[in-house]
């Protein structure tokens, strides 16, 4: 582009227009683009934050890979754990017993997932021990019949440390009086809070030996849980472990067990990106009306430039520079605002909640009770490129129209 065209185009953006309405429309175009881009970057950052938080909180209670017994559990879990540990990506293994039951205390009864664990192994696979509000995993001992509850489950039952709850197993036992449910009293030994409602309200931990006795598994376990060096390699590792493990077992990874969460968030992220991009597009195409009015106002100037030797291509470039400047200004302001809001969205939401007097993310409805945000520079770059491309596209027709102005017709009434 010739310096002359760049100079005139930028000069038009700085010049005081006789028609103030055009200046007002230009300002609206800049503000509209800036707001749209700010919203787009903030929304993308919040969706990234949701993905991160859901992944983190789920994996604090579940493992990267699970080897589950195909028929009635695994007989020799030590052998399975040893075979899995031969894989270079596996750094820890822990056996577990998984079943369901009813917990009762007084008049309160709640269904729960019962997980039997070995505390010394479990701490190497998941980080649930770091989220203990009271007690600890070490409180679970063989034949001690202690139980650790999620904070919401404990609150629903109305229990505290030291209270005795009754755990009822769904598998009954045959007696002369008929089939009777198996039940056992457990002492509450700890309470954890992961910040994930599914686990806080529906998970109870007991010692693996106690779970084996209650559910009559003898020495069998439900499976072995594994922790990997890189959780994003879980799918590949699960496939490779199928060749290393000799036991008849089903091997799954966290991306399959919780695929619905990630698919939902990914779909929402794409749809929100599309919706907000359309908002940016509307703001960008306001440039069309601004430039059309500017071309109409500058017809005499265009005619003079043409008579001085300016080519239609030069005229077109001048108005592309003018329109692009509006797009660049709106994009720059939007990116600055989006980055600032994305980095401080928790503060902004907390202030808004305090003013309005209600909480946006109720813990008993949503998996995450706080609005997370994770700014990714790839999203910022994509947003900037798309926004600038839309603004540049919006200048093409008005600039082409300016290049087609006939000097004689434009100067007829001057």
Q: Describe it for me?
A:
- The chain is α+β, with helices and mostly antiparallel strands.
- The chain folds into two domains: 3-57 and 261-410, no CATH class; 65-254, no CATH class.
- The protein is built from 16 helices and ten strands.
- A six-stranded mixed barrel has the order 2-3-8-5-7-6, surrounded by four helices.
- Strand 2 and strand 3 (108-117) form a beta hairpin.
- Helix 10 packs parallel to helix 15 and helix 12 (312-343) runs antiparallel to helix 14 (377-394).
- The longest helix is centred in the N-terminal third of the chain and has 40 residues, at 20-59.
- The protein is elongated.
Give me some keywords for this one.
single chain; 16 helices; alpha+beta; 2 domains; 414 residues
**N-C termini distance:** 30 Å
Strands, total number: 10
Q: Helix tally?
A: 16
Instruction: Tell me the structural class.
Output: alpha+beta
Oligomer class: single chain
Please list the strands of the largest sheet in the order they lie side by side: 2-3-8-5-7-6
What is the H/E order? Answer: HHEHEEHEEHEEHEHEHEHHHHHHHH
Provide mean pLDDT, rounded: 81
Share in β-strands? 15-25%
Largest sheet: 6 strands, mixed, barrel
In brief:
This protein is an alpha+beta fold and 414 residues long.
Layout of secondary structure:
Elements (H helix, E strand, L loop, with lengths): L2 H12 L5 H40 L5 E5 L7 H9 L4 E16 L2 E10 L1 H7 L6 E4 L10 E5 H7 L6 E12 L2 E15 L4 H4 L2 E5 H7 L8 E6 L5 H11 L4 E5 H4 L1 H39 L1 H9 L4 H32 L1 H12 L20 H18 L1 H8 L3 H4 L4
Parallel strand pairs: 3-8, 5-7
Antiparallel strand pairs: 1-9, 1-10, 2-3, 2-6, 2-9, 4-7, 5-8, 6-7
Helix pairs in contact: 1-12, 2-10, 2-12, 2-14, 10-12, 10-14, 10-15, 12-14, 12-15
């Amino acid at each position: 582009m010739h310096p002359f065209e760049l100079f005139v185009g930028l000069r038009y953006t700085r010049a005081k227009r006789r028609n103030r309405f055009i200046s007002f429309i230009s300002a609206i175009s800049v503000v509209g683009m800036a707001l749209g881009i700010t919203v787009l970057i903030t929304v993308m950052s919040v969706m990234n934050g949701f993905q991160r938080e859901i992944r983190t909180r789920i994996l604090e209670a579940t493992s990267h890979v699970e080897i589950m017994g195909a028929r009635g559990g695994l007989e020799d879990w030590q052998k399975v754990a040893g075979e899995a540990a031969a894989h270079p990506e596996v750094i820890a293994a822990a056996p577990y017993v998984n079943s369901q039951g009813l917990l009762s205390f007084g008049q309160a009864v709640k269904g729960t997932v019962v997980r039997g664990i070995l505390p010394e192994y479990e701490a190497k696979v998941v980080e649930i021990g770091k989220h203990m509000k009271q007690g600890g995993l070490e409180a679970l001992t063989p034949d001690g019949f202690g139980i650790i509850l999620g904070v919401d489950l404990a609150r629903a039952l109305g229990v505290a440390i030291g209270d005795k709850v009754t755990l009822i197993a769904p598998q009954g036992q045959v007696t002369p009086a008929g089939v009777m449910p198996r039940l056992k009293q457990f002492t509450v030994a700890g309470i954890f809070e992961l910040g994930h409602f599914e686990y806080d309200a529906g998970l109870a931990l007991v010692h693996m030996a106690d779970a084996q006795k209650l559910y009559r598994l003898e020495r069998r376990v439900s499976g072995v849980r594994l922790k990997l060096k890189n959780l994003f390699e879980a799918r590949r590792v699960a496939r490779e472990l199928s060749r290393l493990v000799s036991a008849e077992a089903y091997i799954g990874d966290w991306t399959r067990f919780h695929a619905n969460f990630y698919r939902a968030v990914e779909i929402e992220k794409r749809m929100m990106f599309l919706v907000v991009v359309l908002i940016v597009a509307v703001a960008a195409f306001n440039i069309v009306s601004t430039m059309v009015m500017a071309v109409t106002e500058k017809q005499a100037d265009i005619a003079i430039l043409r008579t001085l030797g300016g080519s239609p291509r030069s005229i077109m470039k001048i108005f592309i520079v003018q329109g692009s400047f509006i797009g660049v200004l709106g994009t720059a302001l939007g990116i600055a605002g989006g980055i600032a809001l994305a980095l401080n969205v928790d503060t902004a939401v907390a202030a808004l909640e305090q003013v309005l007097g209600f909480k946006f993310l109720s813990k008993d409805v949503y998996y995450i009770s706080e609005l997370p945000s994770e700014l990714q520079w790839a999203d910022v770059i994509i947003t900037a490129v798309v926004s600038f491309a839309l603004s540049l596209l919006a200048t093409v027709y008005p600039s082409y129209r300016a290049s087609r102005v006939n000097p004689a017709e434009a100067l007829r009434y001057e």
